[in-house]
């Protein structure tokens, strides 16, 4: 795939997507978001890919939506053109696991993009924040909702109302990130996690992701009923037979 603001690499069954707009700390302009949507959709449709890692540079995962591009927008235009729309939601429509590997700044839309992924692995240099309040606006790509679900009301209010940044240690303590690793090991660690996931049953992985994601959308009783239906449905797949037989035969399962 050829992009101007992204770099992509294939590592076995894992696709690595690197935001690559260094002149603006990976600010998420329309073109970059369009390219990201194309790359993610293509990898999602490719059966040779089992998981995706989304990363930025050492300095910035992404410093937010592009302020230069947004600055001249006015209310009737933004309402009529829905300028956030589908390009920003695309990550949430991907069926395969997407791991955000965050070093440096993940601010505003950058933090929101990371939170749309299925898990965040952070370098010890990562800095998360929703600084939109300093620009006279508020988060616009799910920040007030996903951050609050991730870290709770009081801390989310602290972040959203003051616009302060949170370092990697605080982010791990607050459950915003799954793990923190030294900056030099970030991409390797994310690729290791993604490679493990990509070696497992693709159907079980997709349904496990969907079931956990359900927890954010529904009641406990409905979520548990959904999980039960998925669990039972997986007994209709060859992967359940292979996984359980491999355990009993004391060998590695072959899901792919
Ligand atoms: N948009 C556009 N350009 C940016 C952005 C951005 N968000 N962030 C940095 N840049 C540019 C700078 O303008 C600068 O460009 P130039 O060299 O041409 O002047 C270059 O990147 C380097 O930035 P700095 O010189 O500022 O670097 P510093 O190391 O001094 O500071 C910071 C780094 C702290 C990250 C600083 O750049 C900063 O505060 N950036 C803005 C952070 C921010 O406010 N983000 C929130 C943006 S609003 C948002 O994300 C709303 C999301 C809504 C989603 C849906 C919308 C479509």
Short description:
The protein has helices at residues 30-45, 67-70, 75-81, 85-89, 109-116, 143-151, 153-162, 168-173, 186-198, 202-214, 220-233, 238-248; strands spanning 6-11, 14-19, 51-55, 60-62, 98-102, 105-107, 119-123, 127-129, 165-167, 179-181.
Number of strands: 10
Amino- and carboxy-terminal Cα gap: 24 Å
- Morphology call: globular
- The helical percent reads 40-55%
The side-by-side strand order for the widest beta sheet comes to 1-2-3-5-7-10
Catalytic activity: a 4-saturated-(3S)-3-hydroxyacyl-CoA = a (3E)-enoyl-CoA + H2O; a (3S)-3-hydroxyacyl-CoA = a (2E)-enoyl-CoA + H2O
GO molecular function: enoyl-CoA hydratase activity
Keywords: Fatty acid metabolism, Lipid metabolism, Lyase
Pfam family, one: ECH_1
Architecture overview:
The chain contains 12 helices and 10 strands. The chain is α/β, with parallel strands linked by helices. A 6-stranded mixed beta sheet has the order 1-2-3-5-7-10, sandwiched between helices. A 4-stranded mixed beta sheet has the order 4-6-8-9. Strand 1 (6-11) and strand 2 form a beta hairpin. Helix 10 (202-214) packs antiparallel against helix 11. The longest helix has 16 residues, at 30-45. The protein is globular and about 60 Å long. The structure holds octanoyl-coenzyme A (CO8). Octanoyl-coenzyme A (CO8) binds at residues 24-25, 27, 63-68, 83-84, 88, 105, 107-109, 131-132, 135, 139-141.
